[in-house]
């Protein structure tokens, strides 16, 4: 039967060791074992079913999420799951919920911005979930502009308390996940006011609801901000609104690692940079990059399997039509996304390392790498989430009409994913942060301050401003050194050009605003260089398993040459390559697609996703698409009755009217 046979035959064609590739994708044999075990545990638990999600009303959907979260917590305790196993469980439950903000932002904020004593007081309560917290930063009037927040925290020396207040409508907290209906506590960001002086934004731990009856405490107004894009999707989350009317909290509930307020009302700065108040965002942006590879690989897995099952046109001698995956246009849209999923996986792995390194340095009072960590997390968060959101939509189109059905899994994946382009920093705003970092780096060239980390290449500015790409034949594009040089030269030249244009302005801030569209492109070029170079570095590691390294090399080259093709204007206009070399790159790209084609199904099998996680009829492991699509359609509540509700009120009268008209 079509589907079963197609995918089995595809799997038999694979030219590499899929089990070893699973280890590479997971990161280690241990991680693969944990992820495999937990994904099956979730898939086999009826409480974690997902199939009715898009049909539920908001209230039922939300209650169902609460049920799943409580059940997840129960299983974590019963099975004594480690932190790693619990995080995997959350991942495979696959439903945004208040727990994400509690574990993903509230706890990390206390760890990163609280003093030792504050951590000792609050963390045990949070770890045992005796309190549930969220991250209340964004307001109705300001999200990107954190320094523009209006909530106030005024020190009252009489009572040794802070008075938390929402002075305007626009100061209402707006968006925090988990806030609307669940959280008992929040880290609230507000302006620290002492003796009428404004000391800027800081974090404060505020209790919101009673631990007895869950009612908001006096002076606090809370609710949910309403339905969001799509059915199901992010509507499992209670993004909330919060207002304070002179709510008092003890002084020791200001997070005081960065600066302290004494009993006398004196502000004392510690030796850590004030930017650490933004530390949780660096942590979460790093997580979001890893999540991008998961979301993109999931969509790509669905589209690739379905493309091998789906046949249209091109009747062959054996009477069978062509698999759509064999069309070159399908390959040129699908395989770069497959390559991007792997690329984002590896850059995510590297970013996790970078974050851990920065954290260790911070503990030892070395703050030197914080600006680079901020630029990398901001830039890569922006690059990977934008590409993933676009990629999921492309996968939907790659699945033709059936991709638009909720049972394909793609509409809900798209709807749940796209806010990643906005939360944790709007993607353009974040790229502008990278641009500022690049301009600063360029301006310091030649000053004796050597560029570090991902900007080391800028130290070779003279060479990179003049070099000529050495490619003479298509295969030359397979050399990592050739690709790296082209990407470095493009990024260098775009940053230098931006800096030179900026220098023409008397007022740098005005110039920055005027040139911001170009600056964003320079930032994108730098971030793409990071992704390419981290993929190449990955390939320099010991990679066991028959054929595994060869497949990864092909994917790395596809990613790089696809980006080169997509941004050809940059590469040509900066003179990094010639039009002839561009057309050789394109020829090489086509040949790489042919190389990947027989391995495509095995390359998505290596993600090791269960059918439960994929929740897609089109992406089923067994390829049994058509019977299951047919079966799925009959489950729709609209098919509960043959004649629909409303027939007598609305359809019959029309038909009767038409009959009467016809008789006239
Ligand atoms: C049942 C299961 C139980 C187990 C469960 C286990 C696990 C579950 C969970 C895990 C989940 C983990 C993670 C979650 C994953 C996904 C996320 C899910 C949901 C997302 C929820 C979303 C939350 C949010 O959106 S929170 C709000 C985020 N808001 C923003 O991002 C605002 C964006 N704006 C800014 O960041 C800044 O204001 C700015 C635009 C970067 C800067 O503005 P500007 O005014 O220009 O500058 P200043 O503020 O004056 O700063 C200038 C100065 O500071 C430097 N800078 C800026 N930012 C940072 C930074 N973050 N770090 C370091 N330095 C920074 C900047 O470079 C400049 O420096 P300079 O002066 O030296 O040049
Ligand atoms: C699903 C979801 C969950 C969220 N969860 C939380 C949470 O748990 N806690 C929390 O505190 N917040 C949360 N947020 C809020 C989120 O962090 C902000 O929405 C985000 O930071 C963007 O800010 P904004 O809404 O103010 O966008 P704006 O800054 O108003 O953006 C609007 C437009 O203006 C552009 N723009 C803004 N500034 C500039 C500039 N300087 N230069 C050029 N263009 C600019 C942007 O590119 C964008 O196109 C969440 C948001 C969403 C969607």
Automatic annotation (TrEMBL):
Single GO MF descriptor: FAD binding
UniProt keyword list: FAD, Fatty acid metabolism, Flavoprotein, Lipid metabolism, Oxidoreductase, Peroxisome
Localization per record: Peroxisome
Domain Acyl-CoA oxidase C-terminal: 480-656
InterPro entries: ACOX_C_alpha1, Acyl-CoA_ox_N, Acyl-CoA_oxidase, Acyl-CoA_oxidase_C
Annotated Gene Ontology cellular component terms: peroxisome
Main location: other
Source organism superkingdom: Eukaryota
Keyword Flavoprotein appears in the UniProt entry: yes
Acyl-coenzyme A oxidase N-terminal domain ranges (all copies): 17-132
Pfam families given in the database record: ACOX, ACOX_C_alpha1, Acyl-CoA_ox_N
Domain Acyl-CoA oxidase C-alpha1, chain residue ranges per copy: 278-439
This protein's record includes keyword Acetylation: no
Biological processes, Gene Ontology terms: fatty acid beta-oxidation using acyl-CoA oxidase; lipid homeostasis; long-chain fatty acid metabolic process
Known cofactor(s): FAD
Sequence similarity: Belongs to the acyl-CoA oxidase family.
Protein name according to UniProt: Acyl-coenzyme A oxidase
Organism lineage: Eukaryota, Viridiplantae, Streptophyta, Embryophyta, Tracheophyta
